[in-house]
Structure formats: C-alpha cells, structure tokens
User: Fold these one by one.
Assistant:
Number 1:
Amino acid sequence: MAFRHGRSRPEADVSGPLIGVDIARSRGEAAGMKRWPSILLAASVTCAPAIGSACTLLPRPLREAGEADAQYSARARMMLDARATADALKVEASYFEEASNVYLARIVHSKKISISGLKLGRQVTLRPVQAIKGILPGRQIKIEDRVLTSCGVVGDGPATSGHVGQMAIVFDGVRNEDAAHGSQRYAFLADRAHEPRLLAALNRRKVRADKVPE
C-alpha cells in the first residue's frame, strides 16, 4: 500500500522511536492521497481505523555512527519517500488492471460536507476530459469523503482534497478498500501519478496542449 495524499503534509520529526506511516488512504496514491497526518512520528502512535483501512507503524532507521540529527532526518525522509513511490507504483498498476474505465477528469466544483455531524469532508464534482482505458463517461461525476476513522477521513479517494481546475485520475469498477459503502470508484490527483501508463497519458495531453496555438 502507498502513502495517502492528504490535505496537509506536516514535517516529520524523525527523532522519535517509531515512524508511523498512514496507509489508510494510500491505494492509488502515494498517488497519491489525504492524511491527518499521513506521517506520524511518536512512540505513542496507534491507529486502528474502521472499515478496511489501516495505519502501519514502521520502525525508524538505525542511526549511523556519528550521524548528525539533520543528516539522520534527511536520510529517514528519503527512505519514506522511496517506500511511498514504490508502493504507489504497485497500487496504481493494480487499480489500472482492475478498472473497467480509467480517465482524466477536471475538478469543477468542491464543497464541504458533514461526516458524523462534523464538517470534515468534501464532495468534488469532476468533468471527464480524456479516456486512458475503456470509455469516457459522458457526464460529470461526483466523489466524496464518506467515513471518519482514527486515521482520518476516507471515501472515494484523495482527489477530494483537490481544488477547482486541478486534474484527477479516476478509476471506475475497482474494489475501493477505503470505503465501507462499497464504492467502485477511486480518484487521486493527477500530479501524484507514478505508473508509466498514467504518466504517458498525462504527457500526451501536455503535448497536444502545447501544439494548440495561442
């Protein structure tokens, strides 16, 4: 599983005894996805989300002899980033194979919604713009946060954290592990993509856009 992309990306204090990596929102993300935080570094961190989500604690890397705090922090960050990228590739490839349709969509509207009586979630409207696999839906779609867990808000994917105008990659017909409601749609922001077929589609779109005269 990959790291979930979140609304915020707090700096990690890698001096703690445990490196907590929130993977509750990471299928398709480190393409990823919304974290409350997604990286928690503290001895007391325990995360037991409901509904098929999971937070995993990774042991901190061993400090090398004579390694300064800044060097250790940078090396630990690099290790986490490398893990996130590797996991993202696996997750995105899995979703790509499983999905009936994969497409680019632009966020055209975003609003806050209530989850468990709290205004913590968002609902996003997307306009499909380019098919990557399968067919392109002919109408706008909506995705939203649905469940509050001890690891944060989960639902139809981290693209709910995006802003109007941003591009997302949408997978239809997938088994969304983040959603108890049985959602078969998952979306994450396109600028978090790692999988080669997704990157190729983004590059083709950029090339076409560059050829359009101003």
Note: Strands lie at 18-22, 39-40, 55-59, 101-115, 118-133, 141-149, 152-155, 167-172, 185-189.
Number 2:
Amino acid sequence: MSIDSSQIIRATMRFIPLQGSKPELGAIDAAVDAQLINDLVIFLSRYNPDLAPEIYEAIAFVLVKTIGTLLWTSLSQEKIFRQQLVQETKRIVLSYLPSYFPRQT
C-alpha cells in the first residue's frame, strides 16, 4: 500500500484556517501542528515499522511544516500561482516520501 499525498495535504488543509495573524492563535497553531505530527507519526509507522520513532517524528515534522507553510502562503496568491503552489507541494511530498516508503508493486 502506498502513501497517498492527497490524504496528507487534505489533513493539513483542515487546520490551515486556524492559522492567522492574531497572537492568541499561535498556541492553537502549535497544538494543532503537534497533534497533526503525532497523527502522522502513527499513520507513517504502519507503512514501514522498521524505522526508529525519531525518524517518523522527523518525517512528520518536515511534512507538516512544509505542507502547511506552502499551502498557507498559497492562500494569499493569485489563483493560477496558488494552483501551481499546490501542485509543487504535491511534487515535494511525492519526491520525499519514497525515500522512506518505497512504492510497493
């Protein structure tokens, strides 16, 4: 079973509206990121149980922060560029994950 980058991106997108310029949302944002990272660690560990726990945590951290930052940034862009940023985000995820989770045939 291969990891579907769309699942990861959709999960991250659910939490993006919580981000904003209000300082009081910073704690909420950090808590949501931590929960998403934790959930992603559990999700990823099912695909390759041979990795060390800190590897899963690092992978999840990279994914959450990368996807979240790029998609959050895309919201302030023109539609065509926003769509391209989403495509580039998918490309990054699809290039990164196979180094830890090879596609199964």
Note: The longest helix spans residues 53-74.
Number 3:
Amino acid sequence: MNLIEKITEPTFTNSSKGLLTLFCIGLFQFAIGVDLTSTEVTIPWLPSINFPHIERITYLYWALVAFSLYRYSLHHFPVMRMHYFLAMGRFFRVDKRGEDFIGQEILSGELAYRVSVLDDEDSQPSIKIEHYQHGDQDWELMCEFEFVFNQDFTLDKIKFSENPNYQIDEIALRKTKNQQKWGLQRFVDDEGNKEMESASIKDSMLANYLRLGVMRNYFKTFLSSKDVFDLLIPIVLNVALFLVWLIIVLFAA
C-alpha cells in the first residue's frame, strides 16, 4: 500500500493510530529539521520537475492533521461527552469547589444534600442534587435540582422543583436573580406539578465557572484513567505540536 492509499484510507483519519502517525511525522521534522533547499528534481534522461511552491507542503500537512482531528472527534464525541458527564458528577460529589458551587448557586451552604449520577439504559442520563428534611411524612424530598442529558450525553435540560407543602427560604434558587442566571422558567406538567426548567445556562460567568470546575475533574481523569488517556492523547499531542509550530512561525515573521 503506497502513501496516498494509506492516508486516504477511512480508518487512518479517524483512528488514534493515524493521528499518532501524523504527530510522529511532524515531531520528526521538528526534531531533526528538514530544509527543502531546492525546488527542482532532476532525473537522468527525463525533463526536470520544478516545484515552485514547495513550502506549501507544510500547509497541506496541517490541513491533513485538521481533517483527521475532525473525523476522529466526530467518531469519538459520544465517548468524550460521556466522560465529561461523569466528570461533572465528580465535581458535584467530591470536589470542594463543587460543594461551594451548590451552596452558592443552587441550595445553601447550611442545607445537606445528596448527589446522584444516574446512567442506565432505561432512562436519560442525569445528575440529581436532592435535599431531604424531616416533614409531616417523616423523611421527605424538599427540593430537587437536575441536569438531564440525551443518550449521546449532550445536555437536554435543567430542572428544579420544590415540595409544594413546604417553603425553605434559604434555597438559593428561590431568588429570582438566580433563576434568571440559570434561565429557569416555571411551568406546570401534565400531572399538575409545578416545576422550573431551562434548556441552557443563561449567565455566561456561571456557565464558565461550572465548565472550568468540570474540566479540572476531566483533566484529573485524563491523567488517571488509561481509557481516557488513550482517547484524548492523540488530540492533545497534535494540538500541542500545532501551537509550537504556530509560535515559531509568528516569531520568525
């Protein structure tokens, strides 16, 4: 199989092996340096072959890398999003920043809560934050905040509901300004229950703070899980190599 056939093979541009091969080619060029000083190839008994724009081979290489990264990402996005979903669960369950986030933006630092990460085939993946207290019927659910995802682990909606028989003023999401930050809108479901729902976080600072906290946990998983490491390292290496090349080009200009 020649080089063109190898590169154009579908399994090359959507696989970690293909991306790592491209990374090694680029790293080899950076490590030993390849300088094409002549744009002319001379073969005995045949006319000379001239390449007036030989420098453009670098751009072709990076175009191939970009195409391969795109195809690789398309084929592996569901798995990447699944690990992002699990990282969000860890952020709320075990991260001190997640605890502070819940206390400031969802419930209250004075209220106990339980975080449940649900991922089974019979229902949509979700992350629930629930607050229970003793009530008239013993131990009762007072409020519930939930991130609901589609089966491909894209965020579907955000839900918030309270027990209509009780009122807990300490809950942060009882404040209108916090509801607006989350983009929550009140509605009544088919059974007459009142809930609040949002398709996405409206406040960019709130969304970025949550995203940063989740990415910290995602990075920890990247370093500690062989499956996530093998999944992401081809992307990380090629993007890092591109940034190094870009910095060199910009400083050389």
Note: Helices lie at 3-8, 10-13, 16-32, 57-94, 96-106, 176-182, 204-224, 226-252.
